[in-house]
Amino acid sequence: MKKLNLLTALLLSSIPLLGMDDINSFVKKAYEKNYELKSLQASLDVAKQQISVASNLKNPTLTFGATDIWLSDIGKRDKEPMQAYYLGLSQIFPLTNKLDTKTNIAKNDLMISKYKLEDKKLEFKSQITLFLYNIALLQERIILYTKIEKNLKTLEDLLTELFKYNKVSQTKILNVQVLQNDIKIKKIELYNLLQTQTLKLEKITYSKYESANISLDFEQKNNHIDFSNHPKLKNLKEMIKKFNNIAKLEKQKKNSDLKVSLTYFKRDSKYEDYVNLGFAMPLSVYKTEDINSRKAKFKTIELKNSLKDLESNFSNKIKILNTNINSSQKTYKLIKNKVLPKLNELQKTLENYNSFSKVDSSALIKNLNEIIKYELKALKEKEKYFTSVAKLQYFIKENR
Q1: CATH number reported for the structural domain that contains residue 16 in this entry
Q2: pLDDT at position 9, please?
Q3: How many domains does the chain have?
Q4: How many CA atoms within 13 Å lie on the side-chain side of 309?
Q5: Per the domain annotation, does 107 fall within a domain?
Q6: Would you say residue 11 has pLDDT above 50?
Q7: Residue 400, in any domain of the structure
Q8: CA-CA distance, 117 to 254, in Å (whole number)?
Q9: DSSP-based three-state secondary structure for 225
Q10: DSSP 3-state of 276
Q11: pLDDT tens, 291-312?
Q12: Dihedral through CA 43, CA 48, CA 53, CA 55, nearest 10?
């Protein structure tokens, strides 16, 4: 046990320790520093500005110039009544509530940007939780392998002693040594996984990982999750509203805008000045607006189907994750409370024979392999449990 404690201490000094920060602090760092989130926030600010622009009339047009310029005498402006300088102003006025509809579309875009940001935050929260659980579980797995290494060394020493009395073959010792090396190789792989998980976490949080206070205790989870207000669903609902508004706008465009023009003509003093007042509007004769309106309606049908599909997928994924949680919890407790205690008790019995003649080396190795198998299986169930818990975080909307 002293050797095990020393090995454990050395191990824990070489990997990131569980300690100071909790999951929420890492999530907060990502929200503050992640550039993808900052980009989405910037698009939200752009969408806010678009609302005020959407309600504005088009800019008026200013025109000026001269009429009837004689090329033979450009400077003469009194030869005939049509010669004049003019200044004109034209403005387009919508004949329907197009500006209100455009404003509503801009508001739809604002909400879509908002829901995209919220969805990405939930996605990052789930990923961060998963990385932190993975780091803690990898640490636990490394400690387990260190314990297995110690047990294998104890078994090797026992078999070596038995070999002196011709009670076991050298093959048994070699098999144990091969297993020891296999465990060392697996530990190298685990250290590599630990490093990559840490780097992935740092990529999202833009912060150096030092420690985390992560509990790996099984908890009673609330299996019911109301995902009706999930931002990804609300995003699709807002897009449906947007395309309904686009269809409405296209219909309104059939009643074309009215262009009003007022032009003042300044003539020579012997002629009276005058103004021109004009009205113009394009004619909707090619049914382009009707086609665009139908296209927008078809898009809403597509989005409604996507919404139903996404709701079904969400419901199915949550059920699968909850099933994994419940199954892993039961399996883990069964292995830890029932299977492993009996195997460990059997191992002690096999190791504590007073007479070498009663030692069954094959049974020793076989039982130790069973212990290792179930220890790893228990840890695998734990990993499945916390992976499912982390993935469920995506479906839990934050109340902020």
Answers
A1: 1.20.1600.10
A2: 45
A3: 1
A4: 7
A5: yes
A6: no
A7: no
A8: 36
A9: coil
A10: strand
A11: 999 999 999 999 999 999 999 9
A12: 140
CB half-sphere exposure, 105, CA atoms < 13 A: 18
Total residues found in the chain within this entry: 400
**244: in domain:** yes
Distance CA(272)–CA(277), nearest Å, equals: 17
Residues 374 and 343: beta-carbon distance below 8 Å? yes
pLDDT in tens, 317-333: 999 999 999 999 999 99
Closest CA to 143 of 182, 199, 191, 180: 191
Residues 157 and 163: their CA atoms lie apart, in Å, by 10
What DSSP state is assigned to residue 212?
B
**DSSP secondary structure string for all residues of 3-36:** HHHHHHHHHHHHSPPB-S--HHHHHHHHHHH-HH
Mean of the per-residue pLDDT values of the chain: 87
pTM above 0.70, yes or no: yes
Only one residue has tokens 């191992």, namely: 347
Decide if 81 is inside a domain: yes
Say how far apart CA 32 and CA 301 lie, in whole Å: 38
Residue 100, helix vs strand vs coil: helix
Q: Structural domain of residue 327, as residue ranges?
A: 2-395
